[in-house]
């Protein structure tokens, strides 16, 4: 009996094999390859004449399509297809404006008194941020600047322990390692106390986090979602558009945003990077309401059922804070053709009279930002840029090095941070305006990622950021143009190639 079954099985296998090979024999591969080439050509036409991409991005993708003619169109579908025509976030501009009017108890996006010199001087930046992102200026805020991962999580855990009503958490990278387990355990305790917990994380940034590892949280009624979740394994046509924001709000009274994610490396425990130098804000006051809006809009964008969505209301937001610190929270992303945070950076660069200090782990500015920085340098502005010494992503590292070398030639002071890895994303000008958040100085943050930055209009705060920058210089090495010129031929080749593909990095 077993022999007969085996014989039948052999017949079945051989039949299937014969059938498959006959199909391949019937295929005219010349026709298939011709179809692929036609698709490539049509895509190239679409990129130039229909999709309205930037010139540099268009040429970069056309180069990819013709260098890899049979793979290029797949890469474009996954990494290059723009999504600004899609309706991703549920709330309209009018709903955002009404929410902020209720939150701040005023109709106008900002109010300026005669003694508010910084706000008066930079009212055009405030207006720009309102016109692009419908962001209101809040004034009654208090912040704590955090530059160390251990301190950040100590403060965050203490605030979570004191939560009474709800906890909203959103990160690009969320890991269940040492610090991640501590966070999840603490959240499990709060769930047992009746506190509502909502967690939103990026599907690609947190790809190592399995759903099964969150089972204990979901059993205790935590609400958890992934941003732009892959519908099929290894296939995600929105893979290139990631939610890079870092947001925590607790009871509408306390908020966190900045550069730190959740993982042991942010505590300096990764041997590759060593000490992790980052910057985060702990916020109390009216600006927490703006953080809350951003989280709810992001959460609801991934909630297909009405029952899963959060209500947009400002009734429970923000215990009054008696401290003057004007803040605008500006979000940007590929859902809009306007590069909102980049426009604000360009304004700050163009308005600087004394100095421009920039810290970014990835420094790959587009032509408009490079031109603005060059004009600032040539007009006598003290331009200083600080980037990491250790590569996080190799191509990004070599592209970054080529851009800072070009600015060093014109007179910018460019620094390599030597004391571990610097991940801070910050720009400050003239002891007046500072911006800190999730957005790097690169094409990806300007155009491809969903980002969030706080713009602060305050002498004291900007001076504090300036002090931190100068302290970081003590742990950095200056890259003079003479030193940059001494790099080897191999490094020059790496830079040239990385810079060529920089618009799609």
Instruction: Supply the number of structural domains.
Output: 3
**CATH class (first level) name of the largest domain:** Alpha Beta
Helix content: 40-55%
- Overall structural class, as computed from helix and strand content, comes to alpha/beta
Assembly status: single chain
Find the CATH topology of the largest domain: Endonuclease, Chain A
Computed Rg: 25 Å
Largest sheet: 15 strands, mixed
Query: What CATH architecture of the largest domain do you see?
Result: 2-Layer Sandwich
Task: Give the CA-based shape.
Answer: globular
Mean pLDDT rating: 88
Number of strands: 19
Count of helices?
A: 18
User: What percentage of amino acids are in beta strands?
Assistant: 15-25%
Instruction: Give me the CATH superfamily of the largest domain.
Output: Endonuclease Chain A
Catalytic activity: 2 a 1,2-diacyl-sn-glycero-3-phospho-(1'-sn-glycerol) = a cardiolipin + glycerol
GO molecular function, one term: cardiolipin synthase activity
Subcellular location: Cell membrane
Protein name: Cardiolipin synthase
